[in-house]
């Protein structure tokens, strides 16, 4: 099932973006996580082909009985819910405009096993920041043109002897990006093919020297 199909299916079950479901035997954390994921899917905003923004704040309303039981789990429960929500967002290619927040509250009108999940995204201007991820380390690209190589004269110095002094550069115009080889000795490759210059998008992986580079664009509140 495609992303749009998933959203349409979810929207059919929701009223005004509110997810509600009842479990006769009381709630378990996995059921809360599932509800948060569905709320996230339904509120996703497609900004461009590779940029999908989702709410960062989720309020989970529970019956007094369920809230008392789950509140005893404390911060570990919230941490686990955040981890599951973050992993879901990563797999779907979603991005949060701000830090993810999940709160549990008691709502007397709900009966045992019932929950409601609502969400909101703070109305903030979002800046899109290009980054290069190298061996798990994220480097923000703060220039319109960022050179990468093994020499200290490169904007981003990488300790890889397989790289030229200035091996390639990342071009960024505020919305689009490209990678350009700078006449390197060993070349720059995407999917095993050498390139001179190539338009790239969030999630593009390319190689230079003995290093793999992952390009991404992340959302950040201004």
Automatic annotation (TrEMBL):
CDD domains: FHA
Pfam families according to UniProt: FHA, FhaA_N
SUPFAM superfamilies tied to this protein: SMAD/FHA domain
Protein name stated in the entry: Unannotated protein
Lineage: unclassified sequences, metagenomes, ecological metagenomes
Every FHA domain range: 146-195
